[in-house]
Specification:
Blueprint lengths: L9 H10 L4 H13 L16 H15 L2
Length: 69
Amino acid sequence: MIPNLPQMSNTELKQYLSEHRNDEEAFRAALEVLMSRRNPANLQPYPFDLANPESEVEAILREKLHQGE
């Protein structure tokens, strides 16, 4: 049973994520709540929504690294 995740603090959600890292359903639900709280100015695509998460996230990270040079 998944607890009422939206009522948890960010710290509680992070602890829940750590404790349930091997339970895909629980992890995904908690991650969605945590990510929904992030600053809209820093929005990046949600990895589970990407067609090919590994290569697309890698491309995003490479772009961010090149911006810092």
